Amino acid sequence: MCRGKGYVCACGMLLFVAYLLLTGCGGSGMSMPASPASPTLSAAQAQSVTEQVLQAVQTAFTNAITETSQPAEEGHQSLSKSLATFHPDATTPGCTATSTGQNCNFPLSSTVQCSSGGNISVSGDISGSLSNSGSGMADAKITVTPANCAVSSVTFSGEPNITLSSQFSFSDNNGQIGIVFPIALSEGGGISFGPNPSGTCQLDVTYSINSGSCSVTGTVCGQSVNGNC
Q: Is the pLDDT of residue 70 over 80?
């Protein structure tokens, strides 16, 4: 029994602690329910999301490069083909001559319709500088924004968006400036998806690009994805 003004009721506190130990720490009392698993996409849905985003990225690169110096083609090209034909110089639209070479900026922009409704928009640029000898560096910074893009019984949007980034090196090969391969294009960011299941998740994908090939590997919503780009 607790007595005296200002004293702590130690016996009651001990009983309360004992109750907590029994009910919350593996005693014979009630146990806490396990947290439900977070909803995620199926492997097939994750692969479809990857392929739809890839198509939008391919189209944006094709548009940017064909507008600089190459004849336009219908549809979209592979990333390896587009980048292999990318030969910026002082006469290329988007490049400005300087005393040491040229500064270049090539906007990336496209909107691609998804196979079952909605769309994916791409924005960003490739920007950098080239020396008079033809060598140089450029950065690619790209934002991909799906908007109610429907594929394989799932609809996804940006959460808030998907991002891609890379750095390109250039060199002069027999009088023609070109990109130095291989290139790694990193894709991250997040999406929301639904309606069944519904939730949000992250992307961690790499595009490995060579002059004659391009592969995609990584994870989307925890599912392994792969393909050609």
A: no
DSSP, res 39: P
The sign of the torsion formed by the CA atoms of 11, 13, 18, 19 equals positive
Cβ proximity of 93 and 65 under 8 Å: no
DSSP 142-167: EEEEEESEEETTEEEEEEEEEEEEEE
What is the predicted pLDDT for the residue at 132? 92
pTM of the model: 0.80
Got the DSSP string for 176-219? EEEEPSPEEEEEEEEEEEESSS-EEEEEEEEEEE-SS-EEEEEE
Which one has a higher pLDDT value, 70 or 120? 120
Q: Do 79 and 85 meet the contact criterion of CB atoms below 8 Å apart?
A: no
